[in-house]
């Protein structure tokens, strides 16, 4: 194995922003500068909600700013130039139909199923799109997931046994409703298996996560017999998720399937802590960032040690964790493009990680959402809030952008 591919310098801004013109980089500089002020972000979010409510024509402004930075386009077809651009730099794509909220009806859920299948079919025609992402709340009523999760918590035994007991406690109508959720996910995974496209099942809030985990495990039991096609997501900012990862590997070994697992730090920290505080139960979130970092890195170690039967996606904006995974791969004699290890970052963020990993030969993707501007606004609001709440995130982005702008001026 050529170890030179493991000589990664994440501060190489030429690689990081090679795909951005001077104009696009200046625009990113302005956007991240604005996002460095929490009061400005909060005011902008409030103003956007109000403007949409009173139907002010602000969608064009959103498209030219935050939408352009973090979203691939409004339609599948609009994502094509972004996908092709990333392909030129050996960066692949995780395609996400980013519509959230919406109607909560069986008809709407069936429509979402059909849309996800359409995304799978499209991804299958694009060599650079190995995965699609899906949220179970897109095909299931939130209240059903919440009721199931609460009932699971009241049972004893393994997760699967507790879930079966919880399901038996539901009414006939609710069990039929859950079967439709299962059938929708199965339809998506079946087409994905036929087309050779991976399905990443996103994590949700803790109070609906148990049925999501069960659905992911049952899909893996069917479709991951020879290789990982379906991936579950573990949010390591939860203090119980490292043990969940180890239990998942054990379950996969017992059942004879390849575990697909996407490792993330997490996306609902403020909401989780607020709910735990208001309802008087112990927060599921780690007590501090150091604990999250420790468990995340331990999960990387655990999976790489068992990489023959685990397929892992390191979905992280943390430089140290990405470099740790690369170092462990080198120490075990694994190739940079090992088929069971993939890296991923969100489109519009941490380009210094993505493009430098790609330049070193690692398998890496951008998570690329698409959808009508009005429908992806909740996603965009989370990106804006994330960049203000994650310590150092915006500062790091700005430092690298400004470094590259300075370098370009000196080259000119």
What features would you describe in this structure?
By secondary structure, the chain is α/β, with parallel strands linked by helices. 59% of the residues lie in helices and 11% in strands. The chain has helices at residues 13-16, 22-35, 38-53, 59-70, 76-88, 106-124, 142-153, 159-168, 172-195, 206-223, 241-255, 269-279, 289-305, 319-331, 351-359, 373-389, 393-411, and strands at 92-97, 131-134, 198-201, 230-235, 259-264, 310-315, 341-346, 364-370. The two termini are 39 Å apart. The mean pLDDT is 89.
Descriptive labels:
single chain, about 400 residues, alpha/beta, 8 strands, globular
Q: What is the rounded Rg?
A: 21 Å
- Please report the distance between the alpha carbons of the first and last residues: 39 Å
Look at the structure and give the mean pLDDT.
Answer: 89
Helix and strand sequence: HHHHHEHEHHHEHEHEHHEHEHEHH
- Principal-axis shape: globular
